[in-house]
Amino acid sequence: MDYERVVAKDPSFFRQPLEAGFNILNPVYGILQPPTTINAANTFAWQKTFNEVENRSLFIQDTVHLNEQWIAVLGGRYQQSDQFADRRNLRLANSPTIATNDAKHNVFLPRLGLVYRPTQSLSFYGNYSESFKPNISTGDGPGPFDPETGVVHEVGVKVDIPDKFAATVALYQIDKENILVNEGGILRTAGAARSRGLEVDVAGKLTNKLDLIATYAYTDTELLEDRLKAAIGNPLAGIAKNVASLFLNYSDGTPAAGGRWTVGGGARYVGERAVDPINTFFLDGYTVADAYASYEWKQWNHLATLRLNVKNLFDKTYYPGAVSGVITNTGGGTIFLGEPRQVLLQANILF
Description:
Blueprint lengths: L1 E9 L36 E19 L4 E20 L8 E19 L5 E12 L14 E14 L3 E19 L2 E20 L4 E16 L16 E13 L4 E12 L2 E2 L7 E2 L2 E14 L2 E10 L9 E4 L8 E4 L5 E8 L2
Antiparallel strand pairs: 1-2, 2-3, 3-4, 4-5, 5-6, 6-7, 7-8, 8-9, 9-10, 10-11, 11-14, 12-13, 14-15, 15-18, 16-17
């Protein structure tokens, strides 16, 4: 069983006169004093909002070995969800608090799976599951929002040779309704969307000292129903059709006999992504390289490790995501800048 409680509050904004002369390349802190007065003109929608969601769930699952080759997985999740939201107008003195959402849901979510294992190293599988998630709605603008629901179908094959090779190939389809989307800072729900794709994960030893880890995902998304007729049939915003990664890892030695060296590196690729539902423009795809090295040895009969990690090795400029203001006619949007090169040196010893 599990219990989850989420509380979301829209903060009040504080505003005070601008201070000139702040240099972001050579910042001097302590010039600005903490503001203490709420500026209603700059507070979002002049409202103070509150939203609380509670989820209580009981999950039961059993794995049944029908014989040496066939395995069935039967499970279900019973979930109770309570959601409450209210708001208060900051411009009005003694403004009353108005409830904008008071919803309760009781759902049962099944999960079914079947595995066929002709050999110890080879398995074919298929599964079906459903999902349910209340959407946060604080009462500003549209809402309350109906909960997000989903259905997942998946089939695949797994190969697992211990200490040598492991691979998984999966085909899936996910259908969802009432997906919460952000359009220029305004939340709303999309009617229905579908995601179909292929995922491949491979990990194995090329030699006794050289390992390989590779992943690839092809994701074909489509907006099936929406109030924006121009968006129907388009791919979902922020989702790349192609994503891949490849890493190599070389190790030599043992911690107890002179130490163990490990060096490795690889690259992550993300394809182009639409910025908004009507696909006004796309972010370019990017490839980012990472590298790492470590040394393990025995120190006072304890395992000690020195590790160096370098992310974005070549300090590439890339854009992982964006929020467009085109739909809401705000005349712009926000494009997020990827993290620059990061170098992290760590040392630890296990007792």
